[in-house]
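Weekly structure sync, notes
Attendees: PL (lead), two postdocs, one rotation student
Agenda item 3: pending single-chain targets
PL asked that the sequence for the first pending target be pasted directly into the notes so everyone works from the same version. It is reproduced below exactly as submitted, 149 residues in total.
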Amino acid sequence: MNVTRNDDGHRPDADPRVTDLLRRHYAAPQGESYWNGLEERVMLHVTRSVTRSVTRIGELRPAWWSGFGEFRAADIRNVGLIAATIALLVAGATFVREAEREATARELAARAAVEAALPLPLDDATLTSRLRPHLAEDAPERYLRPLDY
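Predicted structure, written out during the meeting:
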């Protein structure tokens, strides 16, 4: 069947033949048997799905990640912030420890270089860069601090 519109199509009932054909085509079934049959088919499908799901759920064992589904977004955000804070603290502690080890290694290397250059071994001696004043031999300060001069 070939249907054409007779007007510009702005009115809902512009073409009565087309409107009547569409109403008959999309009309709900009038018989009660159709609705009863539809209900039986839907309920049968739901029952089969539920029994399959129950047997599948009974076969499943909870895994370690199954608890994550119960978290809210705020809980996950808080856990992430705590984990990031712990990671930053560990990284900072590692950085400080490495800096201390490097400083100790530099100090030991400098001490080894000085000891290798000196003819006498240094045992717990303190090296300073302070210049010692040269005092006259008869200066009284020489006897006050004999180790400094």
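Discussion points:
- Helices lie at 16-26, 32-59, 73-117, 141-144.
- The chain has two domains: 13-63, 70-149.
Action: rotation student to compare against the earlier draft before next sync.
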